[in-house]
Amino acid sequence: MMPALAGGKAKGASPLPVEAERQAAFESRIARGEKIEPGDWMPDEYRRQLIRMISQHAHSEIVGMLPEGGWITRAPSLRRKLVLLAKVQDEGGHGQYLYHAAETLGATREEMIEALLSGRAKYSSIFNYPATSWADMGVIGWFVDSAAILNQTMLARSSYGPYARAMIRICAEENFHRKQGMEIIFRLTQGSPAQRAMAQDAVNRWWWPTLMMFGPHDADSPNTPVLVRWGIKTRTNDELRQEFVDQTVPEAQAFGLTLPDPALRFQDGHWRFGPIDWDEFRRVIGGHGPCNQARLGARRRAHEDGAWVRAALDGYARRGAEPPPA
Ligand code: FAQ
Asked: Ligand 1, closest atom to CA 222?
């Protein structure tokens, strides 16, 4: 089993002299802004961190299809159904690019999927919350995709070539997702009092979980120092969270919606926010969020239901390897 798939602590062991030389050359490549490519030498810890992060990211995209997927059959019009279907399919595509990017580092698809289905691998906390109304489709696009864009635009500058390049297309698609979400919310806020109340209720439920998506505060983020040092992350959790809040508060004001934070105030050029409930975050990433069991259950069922496809592909590959009949 690849330890990277289950996370774990960043290692700080000093490299041997030859390793140290290679590491210095590797770090100067990163300092020059060069991309590291799959066949290039890289420290084991760089590889481990990338596999950890990219596989978690891939799982997030795949599990992230579930909250919205449940609304495809309940979309209020054919147009909304088509748009939502396209969005959910995009997320599935993002998962595929990301699994491929992790495979370039030596992780196998089977190992990654096993880590997800066994509950060892993490995926984004945000997808363990229920989507209970149509307005949630709007808020997921507006909040969750906006947060994902900020995070992934930073990753598009990451030092690992395949990951950085995957982010370019992903971010373009996430921009479409953000706009479709904002359009849903705009329409609801222009609608009846009940529709406005539905939009406000969705905002109230998704605001804090979205702030948690960016990860723990920098002071409590064990992976950030090494990720920043090696240019995997080019901005920190707190920097991105603050940018999200600064961007979203004026948008909420324009929609005539309030954010559920009495401590929110504008100070020194930024929207300052109140304390985040990190106990809730730890519960959710520890497997005890409102929907963790349902999400993993759905993924396990989908995996079992797809067994015949994998068997057929294996059979087809074996047949292709046999000599043609005389
Ligand atoms: N959820 O030391 P840090 C999307 C874990 S894609 C769960 O700060 P790091 C698209 C973290 O893994 C959303 N776990 O970690 C979409 C670590 O545990 P480990 C996903 C979390 O890596 C939209 C521990 O806590 N995006 O939304 C979370 O420096 C709509 C300590 O944390 C990505 O994955 C969390 N929120 O920073 C799809 C982007 N936060 O592994 C459908 C790539 C932290 O040591 C619908 N990843 N943890 O056991 C990243 O940028 C980073 O990994 C962070 C975390 C920022 C998520």
From this structure: 2
Q: Would the pTM count as exceeding 0.90?
A: yes
Ligand 1 centroid to 151 CA: how many Å?
A: 10
For the chain (length 326 residues), average pLDDT per consecutive 10?
Answer: 48 69 94 96 97 98 98 97 97 97 97 97 98 98 98 97 96 96 98 98 98 98 97 97 98 98 98 98 97 98 96 91 74
Rounded to the nearest 10 degrees, how much is the dihedral formed by the CA atoms of 304, 307, 310, 314? 140
| Sequence-ordered list of residues with C-beta below 8 angstroms from that of 36, at least 6 positions apart, any chain | 26, 29, 30, 42, 46, 159, 160, 161
Pocket test for ligand 1, best of 48, 85, 151 (most atoms within 8 A of CB): 151
Q: H/E element holding 61?
A: helix 44-63
